Amino acid sequence: MEGTTNGRLQFRSLEPLDTNLEDGHLLFASSKIPSLSIVVGLMLVFRNQTSYNRFWDGRNYLTVIITCVRNLTRSFLANSHRSPVADRIETERIIRVLIAILYATKNHLRADWGAEIIPGTAVNPSTGNATATAEYSDLLPKGLYGCDDRGLGLVLQLTFFVEQYIKKGFDKGAFHAPQASQMQVQLNSLVDAYGRMETIRLTPIPIAHLYGLPYVLYPLESVEEKQVLALFGCVLPFALVDKMDYWAIPVVSLVMFTLYGIDGIASQLEDPFGYDRNDIKMDFIVEDIRSEISVLLEEWKRASQQGYDMFVGKRQNSVGQAGNPADVNGCP
């Protein structure tokens, strides 16, 4: 009899949850809660870390695109302000295309298809109609039509204009071979960063992450993460009520509020390119870069028309000596 009792006790100690029914109350052994808490905690930490990596990577790739646009803008303007008028017109057009790439990246990641359609500028090939979008005004090449309905994103479409400009500049001698090669590297880096941001946008958190805990508890394989937290919240009061009595109610409420809050943080960071308060401030960032490039473009146009060097306001002669000062007081 004693051996049988000891065997039952040993078997009972191996049960995942030690339950007891006393005086009509269902109780769980509090010693089992730390193990469950560790599992739930690891699940939430892993989920949050994965989501934050997506957020941080998205911000870094946006910085790569901005850096490439800045470098290409600087190179194009610095090497063309002494060019003929026709070449300067083409340079200004391609600088506006670079600005449009920023908007196109933002809109593509937000699934704002067809936003490039502008009256008198871009035409929808399927309908022949156009709709106004203020942020693309004066940026896109004349006659451009979008191919979003056929699966071609506007960003990749616009990079063809940039590469063609580099090729034409090399053929004309405006860029030497190493310089043109470096410009091509910048353009390739831009497209690469755009593709990585697109991967973050289109690839959801894997099912194994969302359902990782149920794969440990095999009978619950169809239960998702929030339901696992709910199950943990249902078990927790029975483990605390024996020692905490009615205080178990506020304690469990506080614990579950915290756990669901941590889970909510992960949900917010999974897709960092939207309009939510916690998303990357893409509208502000893109508008800031547009203002920056617009200043460069206006200064370049002023210097090109008046024959001055950019940002100095003085004419430079053939030997690099300062000539007559320009009637300019800083950037216009």
Question: Any overview of this molecule?
Answer:
It is a single chain. Helix content is 61%, strand content 5%. It has 332 residues and is mainly alpha-helical. The strands form 2 sheets. The protein has a two-stranded antiparallel sheet. A two-stranded antiparallel sheet has the order 3-4. The chain is elongated and about 85 Å long. The termini are far apart.
Considering DSSP H and I runs of 4 or more, what fraction of the residues is helical? 55-70%
Oligomer: single chain
Q: How large, in whole angstroms, is the Cα Rg? A: 31 Å
The counted number of beta strands is: 4
Shape: elongated
Class per helix and strand makeup: mainly alpha
Instruction: Sketch the major β-sheet.
Output: 2 strands, antiparallel
Report how far the terminal alpha carbons are from each other: 99 Å
Chain-wise SSE layout:
Layout: H1 2-13, E1 19-22, E2 25-28, H2 33-78, H3 85-109, H4 154-172, H5 177-202, H6 207-210, H7 212-216, H8 225-244, H9 248-269, H10 282-306, E3 314-316, E4 322-325
Antiparallel strand pairs: 1-2, 3-4
Helix pairs in contact: 2-3, 2-5, 2-8, 2-9, 2-10, 3-4, 3-10, 4-5, 8-9
